[in-house]
Amino acid sequence: MRSSLAPGIRLITSFSRDSWYRGFTLFMTFLFYTSYHLSRKPISIVKSELHRNCSNVLRPPNFNVTNNETWCDWPPFDQDNYQKLFGALDNSFLVTYAIGMFISGIFGERLPLRYYLSTGMVLSGFFTALFGLGFYWKIHSIWFYVFAQMMNGLVQTTGWPAVVTCVGNWFGKGKRGLIMGIWNSHTSVGNILGSLIAGMFVSSAWGLSFIVPGIIIAVTGILCFFFLVEKPEDVDCSPPQHHENPEQEPLLQDCCNTEEIFGSPSHGPVNGTVMPEPSGEEPEAISFMGALRIPGVVEFSLCLLFAKLVSYTFLYWLPLYIANVAHFEAKAAGDLSTLFDVGGILGGILAGVVSDYTGGRATTCYAMLIAAAPMLFLYNRVGQYGLGTTIGMLMLCGGLVNGPYALITTAVSADLGTHECLRGNSKALSTVTAIIDGTGSIGERRVILWGRVLCMSY
User: Fold this and answer.
1) DSSP 8-state secondary structure symbol assigned to residue 14
2) Which among 50, 55, 41 has a CA at the least distance from the CA of 335?
3) Cα distances (Å, whole numbers) of residue 456 to 80, 84, 218, 308, 334
4) What's residue 266's pLDDT?
5) DSSP code at position 234
6) 82 vs 54: CA distance, rounded Å
7) Which pTM does this prediction carry?
8) Residue pLDDT, tens place only, 68-112
9) Given this model, what pLDDT does residue 244 score?
């Protein structure tokens, strides 16, 4: 008598070859961008260690103290201008990131994604670890740390356009909001892991708070080189369906002229039908100005500018804010700040589900951002009145702020990058994603001002 197939094997064989490759690509790109955000987080954790009130710190025996309040600080952050120096570190990263993002998308369309992404991850690991080596090399020059931050900001721009393009190549419009909402939790997972890893070493040897994440992202970059599959066609899988009935796509309802985007009449619509690229012919990459002409790119870019401003204010300054207002130690403040990212995971998934069900990406973003505004004011008023209140408000604010942020940078970017005006050309995903995220990164620069306000207020 023939025995029945084992349940585990039945489960495995129930999925098609295409499904396995799609799941594998989703997991790998999740892992890649988790490591990107993991390597960005240490600076926010270490700030409260580089400058703190040393009068409350136990001094080593036979240690000569010239200043009771700054003896334990790390020069040059032991001076009264430490806020400006912290701002310079953040600014050096954010400026190069914002500028580099616009350029990165153009390169991402024209270079193999596997090479581009893996090289960026290895270089990011190097410059992240370089910052931490300043601890062991006893470097006290602000310019060393500014240089490390500038270069890290530049190479970090390789990540987002590349991973969104790769996922967009594998997944069609169907349940893109839900899939990418879950997938985009890599941002919050990376922030959480980065906080926990940096917090393990911040009080004993803060250099390891940078070196360990640097090693992690570099190793992940090597994995990318060996295992990333850029497009379904590379492994003989079926490409996804990017477009449904236009009546069911309110976000992309207004289609622009194909000629306006590509500047070439030879690929225009015939009898009102958008013609795809001839098979076997490599599609041309879209230009920067052509991407701006896609309906919705400018509008969502400006929306992300303000959403990212708030999100990155919390990313860079929340641990320091909690330490100053609630008087937690550096590690405890870093651990508590991860709750904002936990809320961000739930908010991103909720935004994806709602936008898929309603078909209104813009409406979903609008509703959540409108609700976020009063919640942020409320957190500032009551957030420090007890641990339970702090936990609840951080998760609520994280969900309302990072939900639209996640939706715009993933599902919306993929929708616009596969707009029907592009007649099936996938050579626009990276550029569109870079424009949207790059514009949002301009808002990150205002984080420096907000951080100074927080420090001076509390």
Assistant:
1) T
2) 41
3) 12, 11, 37, 23, 20
4) 44
5) G
6) 14
7) 0.77
8) 667 778 899 888 888 889 889 988 998 899 889 888 888 877 888
9) 56
